[in-house]
Amino acid sequence: MTVQPPLAEIAGMLEQSPDYRVLRRLVPRSDFTPSDGQSTKTAILLDVETTGLDTARDEIIELGMVKFTYLPDGRIGRVIDTFSCFNQPSIPIPTEITALTGITDEMVEGHSLDTERISEFVSDAVVIIAHNAGFDRKFMERYAALFIHKAWACSVSEVEWRSLGFEGSRLSYLLMKAGLFHEAHRAVDDCLALLEILAITLAGFDRTVLSVLLERARRKTIRIWAEQSPFELKDALKRRGYRWSDGADGRPRSWYVDVDESNQNIEIEYLQDTIYQAGIDIQIQTLTAFDRFSVRG
């Protein structure tokens, strides 16, 4: 009788060949880096599942959070606690959302977000991190006022993944590059997956992804509005990275772009010389981690 080697041994053998790539199921862990007496700060990873993508009208059906510590150099210390709860929306959960998340009307029935418990869980965190903060922050500010006053960081837009050797920013792809896979689209599971990504030490940089993210989140950015720009130049603005605001959320109905503070004058000169061909006043906003991604932005 032929005895098969253990699966772990088979996986190890396959990894020795350039013709195979092995993915292991993510097993959540609590301890990452001993603090060895160093001071640490507390952060929250947050993810919401919702009835849709409209941040002003759709509703949260599940909230997941992971509280963890990190060291001054951006290495993750340990997981302190996790938080998970359902919320029954005012409408039935759309079938496509149930298909995506696995969350049904029966699962959320009778549940609601306890803002007091949520605020207590988040109160000591110095930063909230989400893998699309422009989405998650707007939802959370509707449900709990505490999130309005917290600093936020976005692990999608505030990490230049391509320059770090990655081809995209989808969570499942990033996890795959780390040799892992997980059950996606459940809030706490996605938070724990993101934690593993943030813990990666980047080859050639000797820094963690979390360190890179926090450095970017701390900077000031300038939002520049190209109000009343000529319609025929919209494609030029899109190619330069401008996005369209339809004005539905109270912001100007206009194209806009976010740039680093050091590039403010360059972008204003571009608009004046190329788009308007006149030295007109350009509306700008200064954004920090405390208002970036917020409805107030």
List the keywords.
single chain, 297 residues, alpha/beta, Nucleotidyltransferase, domain 5, five-stranded mixed sheet, 13 strands, 24% strand
Q: How does this structure look, described?
A:
The chain has 297 residues and is of the alpha/beta class. It folds into 2 domains: 22-218, Nucleotidyltransferase, domain 5, CATH 3.30.420; 221-287. It is built from 10 helices and 13 strands. It has helices spanning 7-15, 95-101, 105-108, 115-122, 133-143, 171-177, 187-198, 209-218, 234-239, 264-275, and strands at 24-25, 41-50, 60-70, 76-86, 127-130, 152-154, 180-181, 201-202, 207-208, 221-226, 243-246, 253-260, 283-287. The chain has a 5-stranded mixed β-sheet, sandwiched between helices. It has a 4-stranded antiparallel β-sheet with strand order 11-12-10-13. The chain has a two-stranded parallel sheet with strand order 1-7. Strand 3 and strand 4 (76-86) form a beta hairpin. It is globular. The N and C termini lie far apart (68 Å). The mean pLDDT is 93.
